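Write out structure tokens for Dyp-type peroxidase.
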Amino acid sequence: MPQPPESTVPTTATERAAPTARVPAPGTAPRSAEPPLRQSTEIQGDVLAGFRKDHVHLLLLAFGTPEAARGWLDGLRHRVATTREVADFNRQFSRARRARSGVDPQRQRATWRSVGLTHAGLETLIGGVPYADVPRGTTREAFLQGPARRAALLGDTGESAPEHWLFGADDQSPVHAVLTLAADDPEDLGRALAEERREAEEAGLSLVFEQPAGTLAGSLRGREHFGFKDGVSQPGVRDFDEPDPDDPDQQLGRPGTRIVAAGEFLVGHPKDHRLPDWLPEWMRDGSFQVVRRLAQDVPGWWAQVADAVGELRERDAIPSEAGSEWLAARLMGRWRSGAPLTKYPDADPHPDPETDADNDVTYGDDLLGRAVPLCSHLRKTNPRDGLLARVTDPEPVALKGALDGRRLMRRGVPFGARFDPTGGAENGPDAPRGLVFVAYQGDLVAQFEFVQRSWVEAENFPERDQAVGRDAVIGSGGSAAFPVRGSEEQVSLTLRSFVRTEGTLYAFTPSLTALRLLAAGEITAGEPPEDRELAAPVVLRRGEVISSGRARLRFEDDADLRVRDEHEEVLWEAGEAGGEAGRAEFLEDGRLVLVGADGGALWSTPTEGNPGAVLVVAADGEARIRSADGEVLWRTGTGG
């Protein structure tokens, strides 16, 4: 049967033309009816829409003089893809692919660019620090320090420690910009790369490191090097993806895909449950980017799986017919095709690599991890509705208001040739291969670092009498608890790590307006202290802080509430250190309280009966509660 003709789409990020009016195709909604963020010409295109290209290349660049760097950025910003451009292209590409029965439309192609700037890069462009207030334990601190200084909490130790990295270590050349190019066609990518190399060289930039990457071919298409389909469980985004009318928390047409608040991925937008970020206004519509090069030892990992199968059989812990595919699926959390174990416990139902993966997964009926082990990669990185944090908890942790705020927008892509022992040195066991892990988020600490520190690398997450173990795929190894068939018992399984960190960067992907302001030198370094006023209800969880620049109100790890100054010296405290408080709350009745496990107040300000009151963390160095008519009801008395 002949295929429908292909349409040609302009590659607007390569040759930017003025937007042209489009007549909606039959059966499609006009642009005015689309979710508003889908129309954004401010947000860079890879953050929400995703480039989705087969050929990718990252250039890690160092600036020369600030003036030359700003000139380079002024030229580049016109070539950076926007969300509107990328979302439009992706929609038309998908429509053409469906019309061609799943065959990619060869004439419909584009080349996209995005740029992220490290803290050092922003300092160079601005001529000073991008922000002055750096409270302990915040994204501001993480971005300033960079991942090399935080390697231990990320699990980057041993062979994954910064002294072995290819980029990003403190003793290596600093990276100022991460320029990502992505294309459907390798020749288009080559031409774009030549242009960007020329532009960078003329502006005095130097190349610190470059990373080619791309979709694997054949049976590994859409998969990472261990052979598992990747990118299955991406979140939906409120005001970008269309919600299901019958369940607004789910994305329309994608069962199992939750709609998450845009502020989890974009600065300056509402978050799921956390406090505002209070970053400078010019950072609005930007996103924090994590770039990691993760090397994968494919034959080593599969050899370990085969050895573990033999060990578990000897201990009568698994069915006699279970093999390496069976166990590997349980360590990963899915079959190679992406099919969920909860629906298909016995075998992979989709050997075809082109089969669409199933994201409609629930762990609500497997809270103890009998079907999908709690140490599996998927349950460690996205617990969904099956997170019983402690075995004695009455119900799982809520998705909305808790777990949704930990999601990442992942844009990872494999690098290196597939492993094939018959294919020569390029395909051999010692050839470089792995995953370029790229993720966007609104908060480095609460999202990427939290997942790495508190889930992936936590030996007893979730908390059980027998330690669950670290992530069975990307964790740093150790003992893991594996469920014994037909019983409530667990056996200990020793796992080594076959994923190694070879470099990490934190960058910030500014909006298109911010790129223009940075290029023009119009962003002022630092920021003055500023009052932070919040209406009830407000929740402060462990480590969370409200900072004015002179006063930092924080619920601390020892369960006390304190005000510290800009040097982290204590100015005031509630005096409840070592208590049982699980959080601090500013209530609608006007009280600031420390809340115990039973929901009762363990400590409170004497301000009850004042609806409409506001909590103020002031630029003069104190915290206070002010009534609706402006009267100060309570204060810490620390203003100077």
